[in-house]
Design brief:
52% of the residues lie in helices and 9% in strands. The chain is mainly alpha-helical. It folds into 2 domains: 87 residues, no CATH class; 59 residues, no CATH class. It has a two-stranded antiparallel sheet with strand order 1-2. Strands 3-4 form a two-stranded antiparallel ribbon. β1 and β2 form a beta hairpin. α2 packs across α3 and α5 crosses α7.
């Protein structure tokens, strides 16, 4: 029996399983958004079948998406002072729910661990990149081609990545600008 999903013999016999997937649905949702932003998936990867009114994936697109989803499920998260993968967290939460339903535990908490969804290409960083002059970039050892790439990506609404070394240099520049704006 489920709490959110009704048990209806002809529809599902796994209503509790469907209930347990809801707190972790965001993993798939974020993966879908990431797949389209990164170009792993695109509209031509889908086709419509008129007989059942559903969209389907091309086989190769499914493989690419599942690889991305696998990375997301294998990402590490801190839980009970250990770093665990999300698939392990889901398994542990299932066990905790079982213990709670069997009366072996007085509490059951789905709010921990909470997802941390942060993008490195936020609005502030994009504004910093677009306002960065060639001479400023040179002072922070950011080359012309890197600056060109960053500006091109900052103009786009899509998510983009920045290598660690350049990210550190941009953080130095961002911190310097913040310190310069503080009232004395």
């Amino acid at each position: 029996m489920g709490y959110l999903h009704e048990f209806i013999g002809c529809q599902t016999k796994q209503s509790l399983v469907y209930d347990l997937q809801e707190p972790f649905r965001w993993i798939a949702d974020v993966s879908v958004a990431e797949a389209f932003e990164s170009g792993v998936l695109d509209l031509p990867d889908f086709y419509f079948t008129g007989d059942d009114y559903r969209y389907r994936f091309e086989i190769e697109a499914k493989r690419r998406f599942l690889d991305l989803l696998r990375v997301r499920f294998n990402a590490g998260v801190t839980y009970k002072n250990r770093i665990l993968r999300w698939d392990t967290i889901i398994e542990q939460k299932t066990t905790e729910l079982g213990r709670y339903l069997a009366g072996k535990s007085a509490t059951f908490d789905l709010s921990d661990p909470a997802p941390r969804l942060a993008r490195i290409d936020d609005h502030e960083l994009r504004t910093l990149i677009l306002g960065l002059s060639q001479s400023q970039a040179k002072r922070f050892e950011i080359g012309k081609s890197t600056l060109h790439y960053l500006r091109e990506k900052a103009h786009s609404p899509d998510s983009f990545s920045i290598c660690q070394k350049t990210r550190c240099r941009l953080a130095q520049l961002r911190n310097r600008d913040r310190i310069g704006r503080q009232p004395s």
